[in-house]
Amino acid sequence: MKKLIVIGSLFIGFILIFYYKKESIAADRKSEKTIQLEELQKENSDIIGWIAIPGTNINYPVLQTIDNSFYLTHDFKKEYSENGSIFLDKDFDLEKPSTNYLIYGHRNKNGQMFDDLINYKKEEFYRKHPTIQFTTSKESSEYEIIAVFLSRVYYKYETNVFRYYDFIDADTWEDFDNYVNNCKEAALYDVGKTAKYGDQLLTLSTCEYSQTDGRLAIVARKSVT
Amino acid sequence: MKKIKSLIFILLMTLSIMPVSSYAAESNLIQDAQLSLKSTENPKRLEIIFRLAEPINLSKGSSNIIYEYFTKDSQGNLEAVPYKKDKSWSGYLNSYDYYPAGEHKYSSGAENAAYPDTVPAAKIYTSTRTSSSIDVTSIAAVRVTVLREDGSGEKVTVYSDGTTSTIEKIEVIIGDEDKDTGIRLDTTTAELPSNTVLIANPLTTGTIYNIVSSALTDVNVNNFIAFEIKLESNGVEIQPNGMVKISIPIPEIFYDADLAIFRIDDDGTKTPYSVAETAIEGVRYITFETDHFSTYVLADITDTEKDETPKTGIVF
User: Fold this and answer.
1) How many whole angstroms separate alpha carbon A98 and alpha carbon A171?
2) What sign has the CA pseudo-torsion A171, B272, A207, A43?
3) pLDDT by residue (tens digit) across A133-156?
4) Chain A: nearest CA to B306, how far in angstroms?
């Protein structure tokens, strides 16, 4: 009987050690990215996160300030730059956080900033790059793309149109479902994934020239691991 | 004087609430088609029985009712009887009242002579066909095509086993242009009768102009031109049975402007339409599609406000 207790407690002990190790590795990895982010934040407190799409040129800090036009023409050091920065919509509340990280960026002809996003018009490109990595001081997550679509900036008088750029907070599950359904309906191809109320969303937005004031948007949901 | 004015007003009101008919292209032209073999009698003959929903003009030399004959091959597939042999076909068309109190036989004999000038609507027709070179008992199906004068019509295949194929519509492209404004209508007979006339009147004053004007205040247009656009067939105002294309010539003053088309209803409701620009023989047009005709506005929206969303663009 004593033997059994000894063996049993040893077994439990091993399990505990194993779990502890796994946890600490995960914590280390998380802190590594977060530490880098914290270093950057010392230079500019507008840096709220980092975005990367493996296998593309997209690997940039994400900024946020109260004026949505500032980072259209300033780099992450707040210095004038035609390329601007990748930035999060001013209305996104990081404390909550809001439902949909709405992130903008220019397209630079040399392939910088959000230029690679235009390749997502082709399903084949999506198949090779289906996930977006996004790190903030709170999370280091993978986002799975659920829709890629084309849109445009609408006139204020236009009704019954889908303004993807107006969605940051879902007050109800209906708001959320409406957004997701509209995205799926506009999607250039079906990726076989969707999102449900409660999921964290991330939308990348850049310009697209098949129409006046055209836009290309990529919507992703935080992957649940 | 006042009395006359109010009388005119009442008259106008009455006119405006008069119902506008809609073009009912969904109604079948060919109805109740059926094929029967009268092979036991001599000479052997086929009977194609059908009913038409509207009159068909069969003026001499025209072939507004066309028959094609099919046999079946060993696999059971339909095989057309070649035209050469078809020449040996002859027949005549009989008409019965819909409630057959009496038989109205048009005539009989050689094919062309057998036909009346006009086949009236809502009658039962029996087209009896004989052939000097084909054994009509081998005929498995007959395809009947009935065409209106404008070339539109319907096609149906009737089988000797009593079945009938789905009626296939034959549509032709039609169009009209309003001489004064140059506004064009482009569509097919699926949406409108071929004799449709587009009538457009520019509005510069009056009640409707004022409604248009105030409906556009919140759009903040630089300039606009309003038209009352309507469609008529046989002098009766009609609405299309689906989307039709409308093209408005762009006036020179609008050449460099961003343009929009709005429909303005009598209660001031405005509906924006998706537009495209085209050029036909050097004339620039703005085009849009609609299924409802009323007052339309071509507006310069160059300075109209758009949503505020970051102006991301290409950096070179």
Assistant:
1) 10
2) negative
3) 999 988 889 999 999 999 999 999
4) 4
B4 in any annotated domain: no
> Domain of B253?
173-300
Separation in Å, CA of B190 to nearest CA in chain A: 28
Whether residue B310 and residue A69 make contact (CB cut-off 8 A), yes or no, is yes
Q: Is A99 a residue whose pLDDT tops 90? A: yes
A207 touches chain B (CB under 8 A): yes
Give the three-state DSSP class for B297. strand
How much is the pTM? 0.68
Strands B89-96 and B103-105, sheet pairing: antiparallel
The answer to the question of residue B7 being in a domain is: no
Answer whether residue B20 shows pLDDT above 70: no
Number of domains in chain B: 2
Percentage of the residues of chain A whose pLDDT score is greater than 90? 72
Does residue A82 sit at the B interface (CB-CB below 8 Å)?
A: yes
Q: Is the CATH number 1.20.1250.20 carried by domain A45-222?
A: no
Q: If you measure CA to CA, which chain B residue comes closest to A73?
A: B312
- List B residues 259-278 in contact with A (Cβ-Cβ < 8 A): 260, 270, 272
Are the C-beta atoms of residues B224 and B298 closer than 8 Å to each other?
Answer: yes
